[in-house]
Amino acid sequence: KKLIIINGPNLNLLGKRETNIYGNLTFTEFYEAVVKKYPDVDLTYYQSNIEGELIDKIQEVGFSYDGIILNAAAYTHTSVGIGDAVKAVTTPVVEVHISNTFSREEFRHQSYISPNAKGVILGFGLQSYELAIESFISAS
Ligand code: DQA
Q1: Pair 88, 62: CB distance under 8 Å
Q2: Number of alpha carbons in the 13 Å side-chain half-sphere of residue 114
Q3: Choosing from 31, 45, 65, 97, which is the catalytic residue?
Q4: SS (H, E, C) 50-61
Q5: I want to staple 113 with a disulfide (CB 3.0 to 4.6 A). Which of 26, 63, 95, 134 is the partner?
Q6: Which atom of ligand 1 is nearest to 97's Cα?
Q7: 98 labeled binding residue
Q8: In this chain's numbering, which residues are marked as the site (Transition state stabilizer) (predicted)?
């Protein structure tokens, strides 16, 4: 299976940023462990703080890859454009969040991604990404 993890704004600061919510591990450390754990998955990782770059990446992979694991971070709650991109592509998108966005501020309860996502996994810390990978592995 050919999968990509796409991370949105500020997720490059994982391990430094609000560690009480997002944990102490950097995404690179986590990603290296995940690549080792799933040797049969052809996994790629992309991160951008820029909305249009996230849209470009979704368009680029979204007609050929088997799955997109998308944490659009703050853009989840604001971006009609990323929501439209998720709708436009044929590759299924699983939306993930590290934190349980429903236990946080009201503005995090809205998602422009969810209506067009295959599914949503949130609140399990970095394990949310692994659960998303496993959902694609077990999908036929
Ligand atoms: C997040 C939740 C968002 O509300 C927030 O803006 C983030 C990270 C998460 O993974 O928990 O940057 O997507």
Answers
A1: yes
A2: 13
A3: 97
A4: CHHHHHHHHHHH
A5: 95
A6: 10
A7: yes
A8: 17
Q: Is 20 annotated as contributing to ligand binding?
A: no
pLDDT in tens, 7-63: 999 999 999 988 999 889 999 999 999 999 999 999 999 999 999 999 999 999 999
Q: Which residue range forms the structural domain that includes residue 50?
A: 2-138
Q: What is the CATH number of the domain that holds 23?
A: 3.40.50.9100
Contacting residues for 34 by C-beta, under 8 A, at least 6 apart: 43, 129, 130, 133
Q: What's the total number of domains in the chain?
A: 1
22 is catalytic: yes
Least confident of 9-13, 15-19, 77-81, 116-120: 15-19
Residue 100 labelled as part of a binding site: no
Ligand 1 pocket, mutate which of 14, 21, 101, 103 (most atoms under 8 A from CB): 101
